[in-house]
Model the fold of this input.
Amino acid sequence: MSHALIVVDVQNDFCPGGALAVPGGDEVVAPINAMMDRFDAVILTQDWHPAGHSSFASSHPGKAPFETTEMPYGTQVLWPDHCVQGTEGASFHNDLRTDGDLIIRKGFRPGIDSYSGFFENDQSTPTGLEGYLRSRGITSLTLAGLATDFCVAFTALDAARLGFGVTVDLAACRAIDLNGSQQAALKKMASEGVNLQS
Ligand code: VGL
Ligand code: ZN
Done:
């Protein structure tokens, strides 16, 4: 039985000073670096949007960041422009260890967002992460990173649904907390069998 650490989106734009700063986002770096050596595999995810991505409020005339819009795949929160491919904002935090085994990029299709490291927001387009984990014999996962209530939660819920054992290390996560999204995400994860560790 192999156990992997999935480090979710510890990128400059989600840290203080970034375009979509998560309060205390940089505080996850030290605990995550310290955890890495305990796992059989370390995978980092990287939010990786083309300029003009459909999840950006700036791509929707009349819309402001944090409003929502209806996409063919459901309701989508509109974000400030963030994690644009190749920019400093999309780079990992400078102090984050990036000597993991795999970096999985997501959110690169212009018309669809991807919070989860496993499936895009249509809940059916795979990123390839599941196949990578299964072919390496990995059966359990610990998740840490940003943001608890969006990319960490969506990744955890997909992983649980796929049959992996899933733990979220809350001490190494920080939330955006948009209209109560943090409490809602914690409740949903707990009810879907995700182990919440603090
Ligand atoms: C994320 C909003 C938009 C995240 C990514 O990493 O949680 N949130 N893109
Ligand atoms: Zn994004």
